[in-house]
Write a structure and sequence with these properties.
ATP-binding; Rossmann fold; single chain; 8 helices; binds adenosine-5'-diphosphate; Adenylat/UMP-CMP_kin; two-stranded antiparallel sheet; Adenylat_kinase_CS; Adenyl_kin_sub
């Protein structure tokens, strides 16, 4: 069974929703770098102070900062993981490859969540996130209540989910992350996944896809 996975995809393609579920179903650790940064901003930590203006502009944080955060996080893990939001550039991809090689480990797969642009925009306007536990979903998932289904917090739209910010994040994605997609494709690690279904059916299909993949050790 694969146990080191990377999720790729444009903003609002469902990496958070699917990544969390996938990690839970496979008994793996899950990290959303975006959620980690938003928590840091809300808590006003040093990292948060650095990240706040960058997130507000819809730009990517520096590779140096992200690689140092990831080195720390990866070093704390005892088992496998699902990464949502890293790597997002070729420098970050090289960092992850070198980190794994140093430990004689391998990435099992990079899964690209594919969703057309018009659907991304609809999802963007509909998405909410819990500030307490970082659950992320759609307004209709609350079933008329205003409480997070996971922890009882009060979910709200993300500050960076405005159309202007989205366009900037999409431009960053196209410039910096599409080369990562090509790199993993060349390495034979890329799996394209049609992520246009609803969250439940998407999760079921994604789990099937991942279970059909081989572990690289
Ligand atoms: N690996 C990374 N490198 C640079 N910036 C990052 C990285 N991961 C997250 N970020 C920052 O966090 C923001 C939010 O990320 P995320 O929650 O994954 O949202 P989305 O995928 O919807 O854009 C990004 O726009 C970027 O500013």
């Amino acid at each position: 069974m694969p146990h080191r996975l990377v999720l790729l995809g444009p903003p609002a393609s469902g990496k958070g929703t699917q990544g969390r579920r996938l990690a839970e179903d496979l008994g793996l650790a899950y990290l959303s770098t975006g959620a980690l940064l938003r928590s840091a901003v809300e808590q006003g930590t040093e990292l948060g102070k650095q990240a706040a203006p960058v997130l507000e502009r819809g730009e990517y944080l520096s590779d140096e900062l992200m690689c140092s955060i990831m080195g720390e996080w990866l070093g704390r893990q005892k088992g496998g993981w699902v990464l949502d939001g890293f790597p997002r550039s070729i420098t970050q991809t090289d960092f992850l490859s070198a980190w794994l090689a140093d430990k004689s480990l391998k990435l099992d797969a990079a899964i690209l969540l594919e969703v057309p642009l018009d659907e991304l925009l609809i999802r963007l306007g509909n998405r909410i996130e819990c500030p307490e536990c970082r659950w992320s979903g759609r307004k209709q998932d609350l079933n008329g209540a205003d409480r997070c289904p996971e922890c009882g917090g009060v979910p709200a739209p993300r500050a960076d989910d405005t159309p202007t910010n989205f366009r900037s994040r999409l431009a960053e994605y196209e410039e910096n992350t599409l080369p990562v997609v090509s790199r993993y494709e060349q390495e034979g690690l890329l799996h394209r996944f049609d992520a246009t279904r609803g969250p439940d059916e998407g999760a079921k299909r994604l789990l099937e896809l991942v279970k059909s993949l081989k572990s690289h050790g």
